[in-house]
Amino acid sequence: MRTILITGTSSGYGLETARHFLAKGWNVVATMRTPDADLLPASPRLRILPLDVTREESIAAAIEAAGPVDVLVNNAGIGVVGAFEATPMAHIRAVFDTNTFGVMAMCQAVIPQMRARGSGVIVNVTSTVTLAAMPLAAAYTASKQAIEGFTGSLAHELGHFGIRAKLVEPGYSPATRFAQNSGVRIEDLIPPAYADFAGPIFAGFANPALTTTPGDVAEAVWASVYDTSGRLCFPAGDDAVALARTRAA
Questions:
Q1: Domain segments of the chain: what residues?
Q2: Percent of the chain scored above 70 by pLDDT?
Q3: What is the torsional sign of CA 17, 38, 182, 104?
Q4: What DSSP character marks residue 157?
Q5: pTM greater than the 0.90 cutoff
Q6: Exposed / middle / buried, residue 147 (Cβ in 10 Å: 0-12, 13-18, 19+)
Q7: What is the spatial distance between Cα 80 and Cα 98, in angstroms, rounded to a whole number?
Q8: What's CA 149's distance to the chain center, in Å?
Q9: pLDDT at position 112, please?
Q10: Can you give the pLDDT at residue 115?
Q11: Among 170, 184, 177, 164, CA closest to 232
């Protein structure tokens, strides 16, 4: 029976992905900064481990406790929405520490065991901000675009050893705690000079024509894990699929 390790399973996409794979009979290692056993159904195939992807010692402890991992899903991330000029550089570095360097560190931690076995899948969850330029998301977009390029290169590099690298690109989901996970209030990142510009954008967020659900992302992760066609990108959600089609046209 195969084992999947998922980061950021305390809510949203990560939590739903853990539920999905558990229901499908996989061994699931669900990781989060503060473990909460009540979030997932009790099962002998489930382990919940503490993990902070920004701390090297936390990563090492989680990987050791997890044992052999067949699939790694890098889902942990924090969002930031606001005017770039008003976003503190300390917060931008924190976003990159989790969204970019945390993903890279997790990959480095599992690649040796996958390479030794000659098999494995790494799924990096990014965002549709990588599919089309979006306002008030410059720092967040940069952190996710870095992982898009990183994963494309990694797919070539690791394919030689029988390891597959994939991208799942979720769209906008009102159900997730996207910006709330950042620790910075959106209103603090919108200076008065940006009010007229930002108003219509936030109105659009409140009434989106198309959205993504956590279930959409779980299904996209599932599809990416089982894909052997060489496909790299898996948009997740109606809005993500529409954007991907527009980009491909």
A1: 3-248
A2: 95
A3: negative
A4: H
A5: yes
A6: buried
A7: 12
A8: 15
A9: 98
A10: 98
A11: 164
What's the rounded Cα separation, in Å, for the pair 189 and 130?
Answer: 21
Residues with Cβ within 8 Å of 41's Cβ and at least 6 positions away in sequence, in order, are: 19, 22
| Contact (Cβ atoms closer than 8 angstroms) between residue 90 and residue 138 | no
Structurally, at CATH architecture level, domain 3-248 sits in 3-Layer(aba) Sandwich (3.40)
Give the number of other CB atoms < 10 A from CB of residue 228.
7
Instruction: Return the CA Rg of the chain.
Output: 18
Question: CA 235 from chain center: how many Å?
Answer: 12
Q: Could you tell me the two tokens for 90?
A: 């300390």
Query: What residues contact residue 219 under an 8 Å CB cut-off, 6+ apart?
Result: 20, 236
Q: What is the DSSP code string of 97-162?
A: IIIIIHHHHHHHHHHHHHHHHT-EEEEEE--GGGTS--TT-HHHHHHHHHHHHHHHHHHHHHHTTT
Apex CA 65: angle with CA 60 and CA 70, to 5°? 90
Given this model, what pLDDT does residue 184 score? Answer: 65
Tokens for 44, please give them: 């002998």
Residue that is written with structure tokens 């992905």 in the block: 17
Q: Is the pLDDT of residue 131 over 60?
A: yes
pLDDT digits (tens, 9 = 90+) for 28-73: 999 999 999 999 999 999 999 999 999 999 999 999 999 999 999 9
Instruction: Show which residues are catalytic.
Output: 140
